[in-house]
């Protein structure tokens, strides 16, 4: 059963999954940054305020989340980490390819679209949305160059072919074989500007002709 608390908790959980505050999530969705503030969830007269279906639709579009994923967050059992009751949308574990970031720069592991190819991949279990089969894979962070956001041993789940927007965390592979996790600052038909995760590293500007592929990070095991 949908409730005022469970809907707002789902929005909070979706923001958390993307390392955003509720205000940051609203801003990414093109909404007033205060739209999801806790102070606005109950009116001055004590009446409950619900997020509009338009707001939820914009949030799903901005994060790339499916309605199935959002409904899993709505479930009180899912938020407590308990098994979901029959009739909801439980995550279905599936094996996806896993590769170390250092290996990812070598040839033969990806096709032209940035999808897994060739041999040498390990496997890791990841709960995918029902019916989802879009070639997601996992990269294991190696070293400290991505601190403080990602640490050695963290697993990044990457979705090749997904639409990327300014502010998204992405993995970029250059034609010279360099693989890096960055924040997309700006992209045009000719160039791409990337913000470094590690403040000790300056932003990067690359010609699109030097980029083999860009894939969106949809989850991290932090």
Brief description of this entry?
By secondary structure, the protein is of the alpha+beta class. The chain has helices at 4-17, 22-28, 53-63, 67-74, 76-80, 101-104; strands at 92-100, 122-128, 137-140, 155-160, 169-174, 179-187, 191-196, 204-207, 211-220. This is Transcriptional regulator protein.
Give a structural overview.
The protein has helices at 4-17, 22-28, 53-63, 67-74, 76-80, 101-104, and strands at residues 92-100, 122-128, 137-140, 155-160, 169-174, 179-187, 191-196, 204-207, 211-220. By secondary structure, the protein is α+β, with helices and mostly antiparallel strands. The protein folds into two domains: 4-80, 434 Repressor (Amino-terminal Domain) (Orthogonal Bundle), CATH 1.10.260; 92-220, Umud Fragment, subunit A, CATH 2.10.109. The protein has a nine-stranded mixed sheet with strand order 2-1-3-4-9-5-6-7-8. A hairpin with a 7-residue loop joins strand 7 (191-196) and strand 8 (204-207). Helix 1 (4-17) packs across helix 4 (67-74). The longest helix is centred in the first third of the chain and has 14 residues, at 4-17. It starts with a helix and ends with a strand. The model is unreliable at 76-93 and 129-133 (pLDDT under 50).
């Amino acid at each position: 059963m949908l409730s005022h608390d469970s809907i707002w908790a789902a929005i909070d959980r979706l923001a958390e999954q993307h390392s955003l505050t509720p205000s940051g999530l609203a801003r990414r969705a093109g909404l007033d940054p205060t739209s999801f503030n806790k102070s606005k969830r109950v009116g001055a007269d004590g009446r409950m305020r619900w997020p509009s279906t338009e707001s939820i639709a914009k949030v799903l579009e901005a994060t790339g989340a499916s309605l199935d994923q959002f409904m899993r967050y709505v479930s009180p059992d899912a938020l407590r980490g308990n098994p979901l009751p029959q009739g909801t949308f439980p995550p279905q574990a599936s094996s996806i390819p896993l590769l170390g970031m250092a290996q990812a720069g070598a040839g033969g592991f990806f096709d032209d679209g940035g999808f897994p190819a060739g041999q040498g991949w390990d496997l890791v279990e990841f709960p995918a949305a029902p019916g989802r089969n879009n070639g997601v894979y996992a990269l294991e962070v190696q070293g400290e160059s991505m601190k403080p956001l990602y640490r050695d041993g963290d697993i990044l789940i990457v979705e090749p072919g997904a639409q990327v927007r300014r502010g998204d965390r992405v993995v970029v592979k250059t034609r010279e074989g360099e693989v890096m996790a960055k924040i997309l600052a700006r992209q045009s038909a000719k160039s791409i500007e990337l913000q470094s995760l590690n403040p000790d590293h300056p932003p990067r500007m690359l010609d699109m002709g030097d980029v083999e592929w860009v894939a969106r990070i949809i989850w991290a095991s932090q």
